[in-house]
Each structure stands twice: as C-alpha cells, then as structure tokens.
Design brief:
Elements (H helix, E strand, L loop, with lengths): L2 H5 L1 H8 L5 E8 L5 E5 L4 E15 L2 E6 L2 E5 L5 E5 L5 E8 L11 H12 L7 E2 L6 H15 L6 H19 L9 H17 L6 H7 L4 H12 L3 H19 L4 H7 L5 H12 L3 H8 L1
Antiparallel strand pairs: 1-7, 2-6, 3-4, 3-5, 3-6, 3-7, 5-8
Helix pairs in contact: 4-5, 7-8
C-alpha cells in the first residue's frame, strides 16, 4: 500500500466495505514508504508495531517506538509515522469505524465510555508497551482479531466485534484517565490547515489562502504554524509535496515533468533542485534506484 492509498484508505472503505468497516494493512518503513505525513481522519486506528523501530507523533507529541508496541489513534487525532534514522519498522494498521460498535439507540456502553472516549472527554494512554501493567490484557483481543482474520470463518465478524468490546472494556476498566484539558483549539485549527493541504497540495497555495481557512492574518498564521509545527509553512508544504512526488516516482510511469506538476511544483528546475536537497539524488536517479 503506497502513501497515496494510505492517506485515502477511508474513501476506499466507504465505497468498498461499508457493511463491516474493519480493515487491516501490513506496512513497512521504509520498504513501503519512508514516512506518513501528519494527517487525521474520522476512523479509529491502531498502529501495532511488530518489529524494528520508528517515530510516531500523536497530537504533536513525539514517541520513539519499537516492537512490540500498540499505538492508539482516536478519531480526529493528528498523527504521523516516520523512519527513525536508518532503522526499519514493520507494523500493522488496524483501522475501523467506531460506529460499528455503537447501537442506533445509544445505551450505557456508548454514553458512558465509547462516545466520551472518541470525543476526548475521557482519556486513556496512547502508547502500550510490554512494561505497561495491563499490556497483555490490552493486546490479547487485538491478537485474537488478527488470528481469526487469517481464515475468516462464518460469523467471524461477530467474533471481531466481541473482541473489540473486550478491548474497550480493558481500556475503560483499567486504563481510564481523567480529562487532561489539552489545547483543543490549537489542534482543531491545525487539523483544518492540514486537511486543506491534503486536498490542495497540487494547486498553488498562498499564505493568504491558507491563513483564510482558519481566519488568521498572514503574519499571525505564519507565527502560529511555526510555533505549532516547529517549521515554517513554506518548508512544510514543500516537504509534503516532495513526499508525494517520491511516491509517484516509484508507483507511476508518468514523466518527471508531469509528476512535478501533479505534486504542486510549477517549475521543473526548482523541483529537481529541492528534490536533490532532500533525497541526495535527482528524481531520475531516485526512480532508477527504487526499481
């Protein structure tokens, strides 16, 4: 699964498997892709690191992780996955819509835990490693889902649902925390910005355009972005476009000129120059090496 498929997987799920929206993807960094840019979506995601090590950010907090580790990404949380130096990381993405566990007429399982958890009113840990006191309890139902997904016998959907309820029972019964009161306003603004980039990176984006999406002046937006992301908006957008271009070079037969344009670069010589600065080789060399 390449990075473009990764970022748009929810569209595939919506059109392809809406009846039982539970999906598992096996991924490897850097074999499949060197990084997954910061993004968010409405589904719940479990990043289950099996081997190796890498770096994951969740709502701007950075975690250096190594297998075995389970990372819980709640709906709407900003997150990214990166290669850590020259290390590899094999992991499993388990992605599902929480609505599959919430009855149409809400009962206590939804109102007392599932809905408050999804909305951030109650919190649980983000990272679960073997040193966590209840790691085995947390991981057991996820392993059970993996095991039955190998054969998918009649009624396996019932079993997966039962194990997911068990998973959330463990989180509620043993891992629940008090509300942390994190800066939701900052996160919500940045989510708007990142979604705008995701949908418009191939077009020309000015500071005025992006600032207007969050009702900021240009100067306030540039300061806000730098303080929140640790880099300038211009540098972030360029790096995002280069990431898209690198994947297109390995997954399509389009010309380098077309890939530059599709990634949002209007000038081919500029694209070649910044690409070489980032990857230490030209786009043509990068494509040849990947093949």
């Amino acid at each position: 699964m390449n990075i473009l498929e990764y970022e748009n997987y929810h569209e595939t799920i919506t059109h392809g498997d809406i009846i039982f929206p539970y999906n598992t993807y096996l991924c490897s960094i850097p074999l499949d892709f060197p990084r997954v840019p910061l993004h968010w979506h409405d589904e719940l995601e479990l990043i289950y690191i099996k081997k190796g090590m890498g770096r994951i950010t969740v709502d701007f907090r950075e975690y250096k992780v190594k297998g075995p580790t389970l990372v819980l990404i709640l709906p709407g949380q900003l997150h990214s996955i990166d290669q850590l130096e020259d290390a590899f990381m094999e992991y499993e993405n388990i992605i599902f819509n929480p609505s599959m566990l919430i009855p149409r007429q809400n009962d206590v399982t939804a109102t007392d835990f599932l809905l408050p958890l999804m909305s951030g009113k109650v919190t649980v840990p983000t990272i679960f490693t073997p040193v966590y006191p209840y790691y085995t309890d947390v991981i057991m139902p996820i392993d059970a889902c993996d095991e039955i997904s190998k054969t998918k016998p009649q009624g396996y959907e019932l079993y997966i649902k039962s194990q997911l309820y068990q998973f959330f029972f463990i989180l509620d019964n043993r891992c629940r925390n008090l509300t942390t009161g994190s800066n939701r306003k900052t996160l919500d603004k940045m989510k708007i910005v990142l979604k705008y980039i995701e949908n418009n990176y191939m077009q020309k984006i000015t500071i005025a355009d992006i600032a207007a999406t969050v009702d900021f002046s240009e100067s306030h937006f540039m300061r806000y972005f730098k303080e929140t992301m640790g880099t300038s908006f211009v540098d972030y957008l360029r790096d995002y476009r280069l990431t898209i271009a690198s994947r297109l070079l390995t997954t399509s037969d389009s010309s380098i000129l077309d890939i530059a344009a599709e990634s949002g670069f209007e000038n081919l010589s500029y694209f070649n120059r910044v690409f070489k600065q980032k990857y230490s080789m030209t786009p043509r060399q990068f494509r040849k090496e990947s093949q």
